[in-house]
Amino acid sequence: MGQAPAPPGEAVSLLIGQTGEPTAIQLLSDRRGSRVWKIQGPKGAVALKANDPDGDDACDKAAEMAQEDDHLLRLTAAGALSSDYRVSAGTWEGGRWLGVNWIDTVPLWRALALARGPEGDRASVRPWLAGIARTWTEHLALMHAAGWAHADVQPTNTLVTHAGHAEVIDYALACGPGDDRPVPYRGALTHTTAPELATEILATPADIHIQAQPPADIWSLGASLFWCWTGQRPVPYDDDLDRSEKLAVIARGTITVLRDVRPWPYPEFEDAVTTCLAPDPADRPTANELTAAW
């Protein structure tokens, strides 16, 4: 195996004020033109993101990194994001980098592993599952109140703390008011793309920006919870289909009935997830309504 790529030296030097002299640097992800490292020091840890300078889409990824930094600054100013989240950002010889506060968490899929099996049918798991959903919707409610949609709600971008609280990450694709952005929004993870977005993506040229709205986040939330609780995606289609064919299936608005695939009964949770997946955006609950429902 080759040596793991090192993080941008310029970024590591600037982040020392947050972490102290690094004691450990770990490459966490290297895919689709972006890399993420955990920078650990005696004063704390930071997640450092940077574009792959050798990737075919290096310029696009650098622009996306700059776009995410702009979104973080605007969301923080609007009170929709904690001021502790963004640490710093800048340029390096290979493009752009962004540092955000490290939070000790596990991915949503792993956090719901117990709930996916019949052994999850116990009194202690129900409030755990509901608490994850409630704290997730609280994050989204703040964004939506400020006129933003996260636009990339999916299991990979949702982490769970040891206390069972959801933390939302990755704001590069977020859609906000007066959005003059270098990278147009064309959807995110196919499996959690809302039907109305799927329809727009299929009906417009690839360079046309689509402005995601809060109800699309709610559908994606419901799809993510459905998927991570049951182990099955809410919209069934063949994995061999190309993206446009999958989007065409999603655009029809038909989903698998949750009670047919749930690992165990949880009526209140099932009802909330099902309403999130209503095909008409107007029929979905708001994030505030969901926060109360969980």
From TrEMBL:
Domain Protein kinase: 1-294
Cited InterPro entries: Kinase-like_dom_sf, PAK3-like, Prot_kinase_dom
Pfam families listed in its UniProt record: Pkinase
Source taxon at top rank: Bacteria
Gene3D superfamilies (UniProt xref): Transferase(Phosphotransferase) domain 1
GO molecular function annotations of the record: ATP binding; protein kinase activity
Keywords of this entry: ATP-binding, Nucleotide-binding
Protein family according to the UniProt entry: Belongs to the protein kinase superfamily. STE Ser/Thr protein kinase family. STE20 subfamily.
Name this protein carries in UniProt: Protein kinase domain-containing protein
Biological source species: Streptomyces jumonjinensis
